[in-house]
Amino acid sequence: MLAFTTLQELLHSAAQYGDRPAIIAFSDNGAKRWTFTEIIVCARRLANGLAAAGVGAGERVGLLAGNRPEWIIACCALLDSGAVPVPIDVQMGDEDLKHILEDSGARWMFTDAGLVERVRKLGSGKGIEPIVLDVPDEAERGWRHFLKEKGDRLPRLEPPDPAVLFYTSGTSGRPKGVALTHDNLTSNLRALLQEGLIQEDERLLMPLPLHHVYPFVVGMMLALAAGVPIILPHALTGPQIIRALQDAEATAIIGVPRLYAALLTAMESRLGRIGGTVFRLGINLSWTLRRFIGLRLGRRLFAPLHRRFGPSLRTVVSGGAALDPSLARQLEALGWTVLTGYGLTETSPILTFHRPGEGRLDSAGQPLTGVRLRIASPEQGYEHGEILAKGLNVFAGYLNLPEASRNAFTDEGFFRTGDLGYLADGFLYVTGRRSATIVLGGGENIRPDYVEEVLSAGASIKEIGVLQRDDALVALVVPEGGAKDSLPDLRERVGKDIRLNSRRLPTHHRIGSYRLTLDPLPKTRLGKLRRHELKQRYEQAGGSEGEHWGEQRGPLSLDRWSAEDRAILEHPAASQTWQWLCERFSDVRLAPDTDMQHDLSVDSMQWVTLTLELREQTGTDLNEDAIGRIESVRDLLQAVAESGPAEEAVFPEDLIERLRQPHALLQEEQRRWLAPRGAWTRLAGEGLLKMNRLIAPRLWKLEVRGIEHLPAEGPYVLTPNHLSLLDPPLLAASLPPRHLANSYWTGWSGIMFRNALMRWLSRATRVVPVDPARGALSNLALGVSVLQSGKNLIWFPEAARSADGRLQRFQPGVGMLVLAGHAPVVPVHIQGTYEVLPRGHRWPQRHPVRITIGPVVTPEQLAGEAGDGLTHERIADALRNRVAQLGDS
Q1: CA torsion through residues 51, 55, 59, 64, sign
Q2: Half-sphere exposure (CA, 13 Å, Cβ side) for 633?
Q3: From the CB of residue 13, how many other CB atoms can be counted at a distance below 10 Å?
Q4: pLDDT per residue over 466-488, tens digit each?
Q5: What CATH class is the domain 7-247?
Q6: Pairing with 87, which of 156, 661, 758, 837 sits 20 to 30 Å away (CA)?
Q7: Does the pLDDT at position 272 exceed 60?
Q8: What is the C-alpha end-to-end distance of the chain, expressed in Å?
């Protein structure tokens, strides 16, 4: 382990790591690697150049830029030269940024080209000199112009010297300057290294912005001290983080609770309702075995998940905000080691550390070496006292705020953290934030974070913020599904969940009223709620009767986007794509976090149409691999910005021509589903279908009309509407055995192929997988292959079950399917299964079911029945009309 008492010594010692990779930075062109030698030498040359330009020891220099290797080099150069880096959040508002420029007195600013004008505007009159990080080597104001091989001897720094000036995240007001010395930061780093937080073969993924003290210390500086590489994803989006996890073989990730919660949600959402239930049961089983008998089966039970998200990942480090114990248990149950702790910017930052294998995931861990903790006597109305801390890692005071600095410490020199908690058996338990406590007129002390935690358990509540208004508790709620649902429906669901979960709260903790908003609640970059902004947001949300609700439809105003998201729109194709999305989905709330599948109902098949429109509107091309990684609007914009222009136009006719040779589009795994079944599997499948034919009509009064319309010979495509999970078995019970024996079904991979038993059942009954992750063309190619083999195909053109029992839009992919397969179509209308088992219900009810089979129609006839437009879309629309007419008959 390196010996160092200043960050300057740390950097000089890190040169011994030589050609080991220090940074792996991803871009749209791949990944670039920087060795320790390259980083340290480059930083020393830049330090020489800065000193020659007049940047003196102790001078504060701003760092306002996104994560990139140049940011790290610039920071290291400042530390080596004796200057004081001032890391600043690129998403900071103008007022706060202007305050920091004035408060810090910075004359120089490392920044991105797109932020230069903003810096000059807000720093006008202060003579701030921008140094641009993201420009070519020859750029006049680029950072490389300051590189100097040799210079005057740089000053030798001492532990008490100022090292870095951080600004608090501003959760409760204007950011305050927190000046940390080399002593503060190195004491924390040495303690973390002694704890064995980082292994020699570690590869750290850093998706957090480096302006915050937590990723700065626990991510960047700790990796430099330990000689392990830092992995920087191309963007802070789900697909790019997964790309970096996989391609760079990351073994650990430095994240915040919100990131891990989003990761788990993404995993579960891909599995569907039944698959999600199995997923949760697996997590409970894994955690139970681990807790009671010490058996760690997570990596084995969830091996496919580990292969998909990050096969080398073994450790998740959480900080910046409290990690919910249930989330920690889920991460541990999945097979990862969870490391977490507690601290503040003022404590450099770690006070307590949760060591692996300790248990007690509901605690914040034990004090780090060199840290002393006390709990102050509880004030009147509070159950627990304030957490007090002392140690080399604790700062001396706020910049330019002498009164705030005095009030921050006790007479004995302990720092007042502002958090409430208690100590038990050497473990710290944090129970809330003192400054966030709401005191009502009757003297009741309310912890809003506790109320939010209880109420957010409701399935209809995406986010909730609790505040005081007119001496009463109220809440601002972001509802789930708000992008497409009506205000009355949302209020009904949210109200039901609030009433149900309020029973778990003391009477004086229950909210009196709430308002809905489609905009995300204001948060810091690390996920902490900006409570001082809640009141304004609550007033903007309007009254209980929906005042201003209509204003929340349509796109989220760009001034509410983060700076990083706005930067994506600087790419012309991404900007064109955003405008196109606003026009195409004008009736929903569009924002960077809008989910393409759940909020906009864009599934695998609909991507065929969307990619064609994207080509026409923006001239860009998205392949199936890129589409499979897109989850949100942000991911789509990023993918468009990264993709090159389409080399040549691809028209629907070209895609249909490709589908006519389907085997070239299929992967080997898909081809196996078309291979002949073994004798035992075939007999089992026939037996299951016969049993279904005997049982299903007796459980539900099944009426079948139009059976005479089925063609005598195949192949043909059967296109039923989709209301329930019981549609396939009841339709199978309706078809004559001769037709059923010659037919294949399509089934969503999230249900029919989620485990070995379901895969065997699908194989036995000739179900082939429709997998959204594979892209639309390969799924369509699988259907065309079935038809070309002379078999019938049963295809649900709506692609998903109806949420309200009404007929949905038919996806254009069915038109491409019948054109490429050149097969006649048999429309089918199913009625009654929605009443038997609608979406969201677990147990079927008794209700009559009627299945109506319509006359055969050719693709040419369907194309002639619809209006102008793409042929495959006209076929889909005309087919939907035929199915609708069957329901009216």
Answers
A1: negative
A2: 26
A3: 17
A4: 988 887 889 999 888 665 566 77
A5: alpha beta
A6: 156
A7: no
A8: 80
DSSP-H helix ranges across 379-506: 402-407, 448-455, 487-502
Place of tokens 């490391």: 339
Tens of pLDDT, residues 708-733: 999 988 899 999 999 888 889 999 99
Q: Tell me the C-alpha to C-alpha distance, in Å, between residue 870 and each of 155, 652, 816, 866, 883.
A: 71, 8, 10, 10, 20
CA distance 165 to 405: 15
Is the backbone of residue 844 left (phi > 0), alpha (psi -120 to 50) or beta? beta
Query: What whole-number distance in Å separates Cα of residue 478 and Cα of residue 458?
Result: 12
The distance from CA 810 to its chain's CA centroid, rounded to whole angstroms, is: 29
Instruction: Indicate the burial class of 583 (C-beta count within 10 angstroms; 0-12, 13-18, 19 or more).
Output: exposed
Of 798, 749, 797, the residue nearest 773 (C-alpha): 749
Task: From 320, 304, 100, 115, select the one nearest 206 (Cα to Cα).
Answer: 320
Quickly count: other Cβ atoms within 10 Å of residue 80's Cβ. 23
Query: In angstroms, what CA-CA distances link 825 with 448, 667, 716?
Result: 58, 27, 6
Domain coordinates of the chain in residue numbers?
Answer: 7-247, 256-435, 437-552, 559-645, 657-888
Cβ pair 8, 157 in contact under 8 A: yes
Amino acid (one-letter) located at 614: L
670: CB partners within 8 A, 6+ apart: 768, 769, 774, 778, 781, 782
- The answer to whether 7-247 and 559-645 have equal CATH topology is no
* CATH 3.40.50.12780 correct for 256-435: yes
Q: Tokens 């429109």 — which residue?
A: 613
Please tell me whether residue 78 adopts helix, strand or coil conformation.
Answer: helix
> What is the DSSP-derived secondary structure letter of residue 177?
E
Superfamily of the domain at 559-645 = ACP-like (1.10.1200.10)
Q: Which fold has domain 657-888?
A: Glycerol-3-phosphate (1)-acyltransferase (3.40.1130)
pLDDT at 8 exceeding the cut of 50: yes
- Predicted pLDDT of residue 344: 93
Candidates 3.30.420.10, 3.90.180.10, 3.65.10.10, 3.30.300.30; CATH matching 437-552: 3.30.300.30
Q: Give me the amino acid identity at 204.
A: L
Bridge partners, residue 353, by sequence: 341, 366
The conformation of residue 105, written as its DSSP 8-state character, comes to -
Q: CA geometry: angle at 812 spanning 807 and 814, to 5°? A: 85
Which residues sit opposite 352 in a β-bridge?
A: 342, 367
The residues pairing with 230 across neighbouring beta strands, listed in sequence order, are 23, 204
Indicate if the alpha-carbon torsion angle 302, 304, 309, 315 is positive or negative: positive
pTM: 0.69
Strand order, beta sheet including 767-770: 702-705, 849-853, 825-831, 717-720, 792-794, 743-748, 767-770
Please return the burial class of 631, using the count of CB atoms within 10 Å of its CB with bins 0-12, 13-18 and 19+. buried
Q: How confident is the model at residue 544 (pLDDT cuts 50, 70, 90)?
A: very low
Sequence-distant (6+) residues with CB within 8 A of 291 are none
Q: Buried b / exposed e across 762-795, counting CB within 10 Å, b at 16+? A: bbbbbbbbbbbebbbbbbbbbbbbbbbeebbbbb
Q: What is the three-class DSSP state of 30?
A: strand
Beta-strand relationship, 767-770 and 825-831: unpaired
557-581: per-residue pLDDT in tens? Answer: 777 777 677 778 877 788 888 887 8
